[in-house]
Write a structure and sequence with these properties.
Elements lengths: L1 H13 L7 H14 L2 H17 L4 H37 L4 H12 L2 H7 L9 H18 L5 H16 L14 H17 L9 H25 L16 H16 L9 H5 L2 H24 L8 H24 L13 H9 L1
Helix pairs in contact: 1-2, 1-3, 1-13, 1-14, 3-7, 3-9, 3-11, 4-5, 4-7, 4-13, 7-9, 8-9, 10-11, 13-14
Length: about 350
């Protein structure tokens, strides 16, 4: 399931058919709306597997292991993305006849913004925000567990998530003057939800699988209705005039949870296929795809500046998502082959190579 979810994550970023025309915007609204389950799914999964090792034991003993793994993944993503994004900005500066030195200094300054770099994870690429968010979400879960009880985790996280909903989707009620797509207001809730499902043994039986699948279908429809109403109906805007794409809504939690529970009721689903094997590459595709997508965007903008309207071509929109996934997987496998990282092991850039050198 991980590889399927990561495809939907990439779809969120590649924006297929957006801006071609109204119908293209409608299609993009549909793909984004359906895809919103993907990021919560990874938070849920992480919280679920975090629980057995921490719920009845001191989380401090296991937490450092997770911190090291997530940090190494984040560093790998930054090492790939920073030169690519800097190069793209320098090319734009060159075309705009701007100072390359000033562009370099301002870009590096933005990259090193401590809050954006360490907490929000958006200083280099906004796509990489998930890794710091998951790290801090696990820290929040551990903190509440240590000072209270495992049963306190979900209620506390829900309170913060409700604030996040007001700031992300239901902005007509109150103005939240800070970023809410982060660990505290988003990741903490879904990580806590997965954690609580495990701690309280909410795993459904196989008999409830059909019912849960029905709920999944129902909540997909409900999410379409929620986002359509918020993005077009209440704003008085024609459907397809633009793409309304909030990070999450009320129905997102219902859809993500019902899908996660359905998968728990079918633990052998896809077991006889190649999907579990491909799933081992999911995290690598996530970490490397911002770099590939940035290169494709720069290539598109270069062609556009030369008079080739590729952004209005259907073939470009059909090709961008698979090209991003294939390119990301290729880079990931190449990094493994060159011992820059180790699939299934350390993702700290260069550590596998150093280990090989030391063993000789």
């Amino acid at each position: 399931m991980r590889i399927i979810a990561i495809v939907f994550v990439v779809l969120i970023h590649t924006d297929p058919f957006q801006r071609i025309n109204a119908y293209g915007n409608m299609i993009n609204f549909g793909t984004k709306t359906i895809s919103r389950f993907a990021v919560p799914f990874f938070f849920l999964t992480s919280g679920y597997f975090f629980a057995p090792k921490t719920a009845h034991h001191n989380p401090i003993k296991y937490l450092p292991e997770r911190i090291v793994k997530l940090t190494s993944l984040y560093l790998f993503g930054l090492v790939l993305a920073a030169p690519t994004f800097l190069g793209g900005q320098l090319v734009q500066a060159k075309f705009a006849d701007q100072s390359l030195r000033a562009t370099t200094v301002s870009s590096i300054t933005e990259f090193l913004d401590p809050v954006e770099l360490l907490y929000y994870g958006t200083s280099v690429s906004e796509i990489l925000w998930f890794l710091p968010a998951l790290l801090f979400s696990l820290l929040f879960v551990s903190f509440v567990t240590v000072i209270g009880k495992p049963s306190y985790v979900l209620p506390v996280a829900l309170c913060f998530h409700l604030v996040g909903l007001l700031g992300a989707t239901y902005t007509m009620f109150v103005d939240i003057p800070f970023e809410i797509r982060d660990a505290l207001f988003f990741g903490f809730f879904y990580t806590s939800l997965g954690y609580t499902i495990c701690v309280r043994s909410w795993e459904p039986s196989k008999k409830k699988g059909r019912l849960l699948l029905g709920f999944v279908s129902l909540f997909i429809v409900l999410q379409f209705i929620e986002f359509y109403a918020l993005g077009y109906l209440l704003r008085g805007e024609p459907f397809g005039s633009y793409v309304y794409a909030p990070s999450y809504g009320i129905s997102t939690a219902l859809l993500s949870t019902s899908l996660f529970l359905f998968l728990l009721s079918r633990p052998t689903l896809f077991a006889d296929t190649s999907l579990p094997t491909w799933g081992t590459y999911a995290v690598g595709i996530y970490v490397t795809h911002p770099t590939v997508f940035a290169i494709l965007q720069d290539f598109r903008e270069t062609l556009e500046s030369m008079g080739y309207a590729v952004d209005s071509m259907i073939i470009w929109h059909l090709a961008t998502t698979p090209a991003t996934i294939i390119g990301a997987l290729t880079i990931y496998l190449l990094a493994h082959k060159l011992r820059v990282i180790e699939i299934g092991g350390s993702h700290l850039p260069g550590e596998p190579w150093l280990k090989t050198r030391r063993s000789k």
